[in-house]
Amino acid sequence: APPPPPRSFCGKNMLGKRLQDTAETLIIGGGCVGVSLAYHLAKAGQKDVVLLEKSELTAGSTWHAAGLTTYYHPGINLKKIHYHSIKLYEQLEAETGQAVGFHQPGSVRIASTPARVDEMKYQMTRTHWHPTPQFLIGPKKVHELFPLLNMDKVLAGLYTPGDGHIDPYSLTMALAAGARMYGAQIYSSAPVTGLSPTLDGRWDVQTPHGTIQANRIVNATGFWARELGQMIGFEHPTIPVHHQYVVTATVPEVKALKKELPVIRDLEGSYYLRQERDGLLFGPYEREEKMVLQDSWVRDGVPPGFGKELFESDLDRIMDHVEMAMEMVPVLKHADIINIVSGPITYTPDLLPMIGPHQGVRNYWTAIGFGYGVIHAGGVGKFLSDWIMSGEPPYDLIECDPNRYGKWTTVPFLCAKARESYGFNNVVGYPKEERFAGRPTSRVSALYDLLKDKCSMGFHAGWEQPHYFYKPGDDVGYRPSFTRTNWFGPVGRECKLVMEKVGVIDLSPFGKFIVKGKDSHKLLDRLFANTMPKVGLTNISHMLTPRGRVYAEVTITQLAPGEFMLITGSGSELHDLRWIEREAADGSYEVDITNITDSIGVLGVAGPNSRKVLQKLTSEDLSDAAFKFLHCKSIQLAGVHLRAIRISYTGELGWELYVDMPKMAEVYQAIMEAGQEEGIDNFGTYAMASLRLEKGFRGWGAEPADFIGKKALHEIKAQGLVRKLAYLTLDTDNIDPEGNETIWHEGKVNSNT
Length: 753
Prior knowledge:
Structural class: alpha+beta
Organism: Pygocentrus nattereri
Number of helices: 19
InterPro entries: FAD-dep_OxRdtase, FAD/NAD-bd_sf, FAO_M, GcvT/YgfZ/DmdA, GCVT_N, TrmE/GcvT-like
Helix content: 25-40%
Domain FAD dependent oxidoreductase central: 391-442
Oligomer: single chain
Protein name: Dimethylglycine dehydrogenase
Domain FAD dependent oxidoreductase: 26-387
């Protein structure tokens, strides 16, 4: 039987104008994110920007959103997205002539527990080097800003001026007006029925009205993202979640106020609340066991015709939060509810969106998975527009890279993590946070079963990897804190182990690629700002962007003539692979690129006694004269063939052993047995990070041919550096820097850690 016709995004077949034949960038999806990208690209001067919307603009999650806007984000990079969004929204009405309904009364995050106060203090240490103001305020100031609060439990607040809310429909229409004003074409009632890549890297985009050939396509389809991805073989890890908010009738006490109330976020009550005309609007985030996933859409797709529909509301499901809101804002007790909105919003496993070009195909970009699309829309549109126009991201946003997920991201994992993330919306955000739902995935090394009960495991790109190990008498388990906690002593013990004896660490999550073929050397010369190592040698090299910024740091070994092994960090695996594959395709290099990450295990053996232990298990001469630093050899160790690289990532004598995953446990057990006299033991990634930081090891190679970013690098050097990396030693009793804290000098913000 013939295959069924491809499923389209159902819509009316009335365009009202002729469909354009070609596009430089074709955006699929007319919510606030997709329309923002069209606006920014057209404003930046790109010609032939096209947006296709299956039904009408805002259909999906945009039209029913609560519209909250905030400068605040616990991460340092997404703060920039929020900042650019708000600055755009402030001037959009004047630019386009379209009202956007933007209110900026500020916002206050309420702290009603000591742990929450600590979290706010922690966030204040990281905020001053950003351009947005943020203040830790006491109960008196909180009550002054929001006089309707019951202050019995309020200990402090985090106040952000300029926060507020915007009408999502009006925002989208203003962005669309701006996009058209600058030359973009927007087609409504234009469902996509098929996507076909061409040999030259472009796309044929099929619609009922004809086919458009696009140089790149952007998936901005909201909760239809999985279905569009499935057209080209992807299973994007996005899932719709039921989110409800409640709108009240006029509240006399609100109407009597002389100015608009700030938005409040009662973090222990897990809800937001803002003024809506003369009433109030509040939306809760239920606990895992009560929240609802629309998982049938993951299995069966979104029902045809769904767009501006809602789910049936369920007040009972959120009643716990309603009662907490009534306790915090007592006027709610007597307020009449006039509307309960229950609609789908899209979640990814970690609650962050998927933004950027996707690995595995050419010129396919995503802007999907937005749980907070309104505050992200403006900044993401600018971020992606800058990237598309310049060929590189304007700043680091790797936590939102779509390639952080892989085949290990199954539907059960997606569902478990979405439940967890929704329920964790307002939990205390500790440093070194771990979340345990859906773990372990299929990505475990051969040592997992041997080590899982001896250590605290961390989650790295789907992998389980030991953070630190327990000893009898230790306080075990996950104990997050803003001060030194139960891992501090064990990590110090492991650092001492590596500095004085010998330790073993599982480094299997490293991203690992083989690049070989006729043009392999030529390709890598183009990609990396370093001379390629000779056969049997290793170096540390950097891929640069066209503007001379570091895109990735990679360890490169030439295993045989024209065959190279590339090693990168676990979180950068597909991020870096995409960059390499793109250059190989664009330059028509004759190479084979293979991702061997899951099939090869890696053991790190480090410390002054490491050579003595390994020498017991091999006939290969491991002396300094025979096996030099940054050399690689194929050896037999404990009867197993593997590759060994002499390296010093901790500042001590060290080795990395690359072994077929099925043989990894055998090699590990042989090493542990052989090292008993030398005091061998395990160590984890916390100790490794501490040792590397204190060593401050950096290596730069000779300058090769015309690599990407070479011209820009020379220009930067000629102009002189404006920033330098420095190491600081801090005297502290119980609180250690985690990174990105503000550095003050003589009363002024100097930099950040």
